[in-house]
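dumping this here so i dont lose it
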């Protein structure tokens, strides 16, 4: 059995979608949801799905090995970031080489970097009058949104699109492709 840990800071609709996708899979399961945010919606998602969760502080994440140890103790094979907003520290990355992936709601390297997350990304895409946007799934390195790209796909935009409709189009791509790519990486 391959085991996934999902890291999220917010609502967790991607986390919910990934948990659902692997629910009846005999080879892959979501073992845990981890969050830096004690009030994150994703913790309710985990609770309702019967998935273990762990909340950690900034100090625990950056200055101790508590989170690394938790993942090792739970024999996690893949760390999946889904709307997780903190930079992943170097020691953490070294502990799980090529085993940490992230999804970004745009076509990197455009519209990435520090401060570019969630609605801000879609507002920037709109402001730049882009005719297309998309998603990028990539390995995580010590810099925001700069790790090797695993998968990208795009959708077209029209002048009528708003940041909200762009977000909806991007979420649709995320829900369709993130679980599939995770499955491929673990097979
Ligand atoms: C997702 O769109 C994800 O791509 C984005 O946060 C959203 C989380 O939504 N991640 C980033 O912007 C990372 N830079 P969710 O909580 O509903 O899954």
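and the seq i came up w/
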């Amino acid at each position: 059995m391959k085991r996934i840990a999902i890291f999220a800071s917010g609502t967790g609709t991607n986390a919910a979608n990934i948990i659902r996708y692997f629910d009846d899979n005999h080879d892959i399961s979501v073992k845990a949801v981890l969050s830096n945010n004690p009030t994150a919606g994703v913790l309710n998602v985990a609770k309702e799905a019967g998935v273990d969760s762990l909340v950690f502080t900034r100090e625990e994440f950056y200055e101790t090995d508590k989170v690394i140890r938790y993942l090792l103790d739970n024999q996690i094979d893949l760390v999946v970031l889904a709307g997780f907003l903190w930079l992943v520290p170097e020691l953490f990355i070294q502990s799980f080489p090529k085993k940490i992936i992230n999804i970004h709601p745009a076509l990197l390297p455009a519209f990435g970097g520090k401060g570019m997350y969630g609605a801000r990304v879609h507002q920037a895409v709109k402001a730049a009058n882009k005719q297309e946007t998309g998603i990028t799934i990539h390995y995580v390195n010590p810099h925001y949104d700069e790790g090797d790209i695993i998968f990208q796909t795009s959708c077209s935009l029209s002048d009528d699109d708003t940041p909200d409709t762009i977000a909806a189009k991007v979420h649709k791509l995320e829900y369709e492709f993130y679980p599939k790519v995770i499955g491929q990486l673990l097979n």
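The chain has seven helices and seven strands.
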